[in-house]
Write a structure and sequence with these properties.
This is Phosphate transport regulator. The protein has 206 residues and is mainly alpha-helical. It has a single domain, classed as Methane Monooxygenase Hydroxylase, Chain G, domain 1 (Up-down Bundle), CATH 1.20.58. It is built from six helices and no strands. Helix 1 packs antiparallel against helix 4 and helix 4 runs antiparallel to helix 5.
């Protein structure tokens, strides 16, 4: 690790960890959604909305700290990118839950459960990785695994699209369901963006 003569602002590490922990909360709410009937989904959506607001607060706190800190633990643009990508994950998960409720989807297509399981695993890995930013050690397996999960998510997404366009759904239902599975795919992409940013930071700091 690069030797530094100046002290570093360390509160960023705690804020990144808090943001990632909040994403785990969001992924658990997605899992709840799978087993919930229509009457319970509105309450889950409300809790997801609260989690998304908490994520926004965490992101704004990081930006405020960034703007008020003379010394940062790593490059400012990387701090901004990491915070923004973590926020994107939460936004996409909240959007997916909201769409399920707004569209009054009676039954999610087979394969959405696999999408959500991938997101839940990526959330766990991301939360486990954030504390390692302090030392930049033991992170390689994290970004390799998240990239593997994103590839898996791509395959699941393609199969879901093929299923939606097989003629069993009417056109309006296809539009609704496709938007939901597309947003979940965007969440998987956002996890990969986080992992790629962490890799970039680690390489710079090595």
């Amino acid at each position: 690790m690069r030797f530094r003569l100046t002290p570093r602002e360390t509160s960023f590490y705690d804020m990144f960890a808090a943001s990632a922990d909040n994403i785990v909360t969001g992924s658990k709410l997605l899992m709840e959604l799978l087993g919930a009937d229509a009457s319970a989904r509105a309450e889950i959506a409300e809790r997801m909305r609260a989690a998304e607001h908490a994520g926004d607060d965490a992101t704004h706190a990081i930006f405020h700290q960034l703007n008020s800190s003379f010394i940062t633990p790593f490059d400012r643009e990387d701090i901004y990118s990491l915070a923004s990508s973590l926020d994107d994950i939460m936004d996409f998960m909240e959007e997916a839950v909201d769409l399920v409720v707004l569209y009054n989807v009676e039954e999610l297509p087979k394969g959405v459960d696999q999408q959500i399981e991938v997101l839940a695993r990526a959330a766990e890995l991301t939360a486990e990785a954030m504390p390692h930013l302090r030392t930049m050690e033991n992170l390689t397996e994290y970004w390799i695994e998240v990239n593997r999960l994103e590839n898996q998510a791509d395959q699941i997404h393609r199969k879901l699209l093929a299923h939606l366009f097989n003629g069993k759904y009417d056109a309006m239902e296809v539009l609704k369901l496709k938007q939901i599975v597309d947003v979940l795919e965007e969440a998987a992409d956002a996890f990969e963006h986080v992992a790629n940013t962490v890799e970039t930071i680690a390489v710079k700091e090595s």
